Amino acid sequence: MTPDVFQDLDRTIHEKGRMGIMAMLAASPEISFTDLRTALAMTDGNLTTHLRTLQEAGYVTLEKSVRNRRSLTSCQLTPVGRNAFREYVAALERFVASNRNI
């Protein structure tokens, strides 16, 4: 294993909560805040913090709207975020492949 392989992992995505968010958003064009929170078993505050980090990196967008007189926050990957996640998965695959002899 070379240290370069591990260094290729995007540290913004690598935290397990953010990796879960990115994986779910990569599989769906848009997911509500509530659905993300439930699926990932996060608190509102924890999910908000992770989404803010991803939003500041340009990886996700959040859209607030009102549906049936209730506020709804929808989350989706940006093209930059989709590409970053694709690169993250490829780097993770290289990392795993470099350790197959263990």
Task: Give a description of the structure.
With 102 residues, the chain is of the alpha+beta class. It has one domain: Arc Repressor Mutant, subunit A (Orthogonal Bundle), CATH 1.10.10. The protein is built from six helices and three strands, in the order αααβααββα. The protein has a three-stranded antiparallel sheet with strand order 1-3-2. A hairpin with a 2-residue loop joins strand 2 and strand 3. The radius of gyration is 15 Å and the shape is elongated. The protein starts with a helix and ends in a 5-residue tail after the last helix. The mean pLDDT is 91.
Write the layout of secondary structure elements.
Blueprint lengths: L2 H5 L3 H4 L1 H11 L4 E2 H8 L3 H13 L3 E8 L2 E8 L1 H19 L5
Antiparallel strand pairs: 1-3, 2-3
Total domains, how many?
Answer: 1
Termini separation = 10 Å
CATH architecture name: Orthogonal Bundle
Rounded mean pLDDT score:
91
What is the radius of gyration?
Answer: 15 Å
Tell me the overall shape: elongated
**What order do the helices and strands follow?**
HHHEHHEEH
- Give the neighbour order of strands across the main sheet: 1-3-2
Instruction: Figure out the total of helices.
Output: 6
